[in-house]
Amino acid sequence: MNIEIKKLTPELVDDFFRFFEHIAFPDHPEWGCGCYCCFFHANNIEEWENQTAEENREIARKMILSDKMKGLLAYADGKPVGWCHFDDKSKLPGLKVFYPQVIGNEENIGAIVCFTIAQQYRNKGIAKKLLSQACGELEKQGFLIAEAYPQRECASDEENYHGPLSMYLSQGFSVHKELEKEVIVRKYLRN
User: Where are the coiled-coil regions (predicted)?
Assistant: First the structure.
């Protein structure tokens, strides 16, 4: 299996939607509820709860076409099979809305917030490849720290959309702060 990681660009907008609408969630259609990775871009709870799947799709489309949604797509033999969403922590208002316990100094911190891997491609190292490249992209953008928010324990892959804690620890992240359900992990990108 040939895995290729590509930075999300306006030219890949169709692949992004192909992945989320046809590939990502056949094992759990309810997870394909229309988030389109807009959750962390919501400004408040009411906005998120009232947005339809169609509105999220349009928001994602506009963000991708204007190069404002940051992420990576993983391809297996030319087919999109994985996604990782990351950005400047200060540009993800949903973190403040849904995870206020992770807010603090956002200066020079890139946040890695979501992984989605198609079912038959899970546990094949794709998320690790996405994580490694996300850290590389954040470093290129000048961030000093990569930060993520894995849950302590997850009953299923679907609940583990922040990525498993063990993956982060194996990739050079360390625990920055322990919360009730989540752990804030950080990796320093420059010495």
Answer: none
Tokens for 84? 């990782």
Class of domain 3-188: alpha beta
pLDDT digits (tens, 9 = 90+) for 25-45: 877 766 666 899 999 999 999
What is the domain partition of the chain in residue ranges? Answer: 3-188
Would the pTM of this model clear 0.70, i.e. be above it?
yes
Long-range CB contact pairs, 157-164, < 8 A, 24+: 157/117, 157/119, 157/122, 158/28, 158/31, 160/115, 161/114, 161/115, 161/116, 162/113, 162/114, 162/115, 163/112, 163/115, 163/127, 163/131, 164/127
Number of Cβ within 10 Å of residue 39's Cβ equals 19
pLDDT, tens digit (0-9, with 9 covering 90-100), for 9-21? 999 999 999 999 9
